[in-house]
Amino acid sequence: MTSFLLFGTIYLVLIVLFAVIYTAIDMSGAGTIKEHYLEETNLSLPALLLRSLYFSLITIFAVGFGDITPFGLSRLFASIQAFIGFLMPIAIVIHLFPNEERREGN
Fold first, then answer.
1. Percent of the chain scoring above 70 in pLDDT
2. What pLDDT does residue 25 have?
3. Would residue 106 count as lying in a domain?
4. End-to-end CA, the chain
5. pTM of the model
């Protein structure tokens, strides 16, 4: 049970961390995440953070609905986050079954 809590906490921290990164990148002008079905007009900080949290969540779990697209520096961080999201289930399996061995001939 503590392993699931640990990995859940790691996922949550990564989601929030990347959301803050996406927000900072957007505010700096080095990149953005564009919502295709919303007319953007200078989003407030809470709205920008919520959009970044949503994008971070769908990116780490590799859902990728296609309603939001990263541009500029945000693309690099989205790629990094997607790769981490791809590796996390592998880490969970390795952590849960560290001593499993395949038996030959069975």
1. 92
2. 97
3. no
4. 31
5. 0.86
CA atoms of 34 and 48, how far apart (whole Å): 11
Spatial contact of 22 and 71, defined as CB atoms under 8 Å apart = no
Q: In CATH, what number is assigned to the domain containing residue 15?
A: 1.10.287.70
Residue type, 32: T
Q: Both tokens of residue 44?
A: 């407030």
Residues in contact with 85: Cβ distance below 8 Å, sequence separation at least 6, in sequence order: 14, 59, 60, 61, 62
pLDDT digits (tens, 9 = 90+) for 88-103: 999 888 888 877 665 6
Burial-class residue 93 by CB neighbours within 10 Å (0-12, 13-18, 19+): exposed
**Local confidence band at 104 (pLDDT 50, 70, 90 cut-offs):** low
Domain presence at residue 104: no
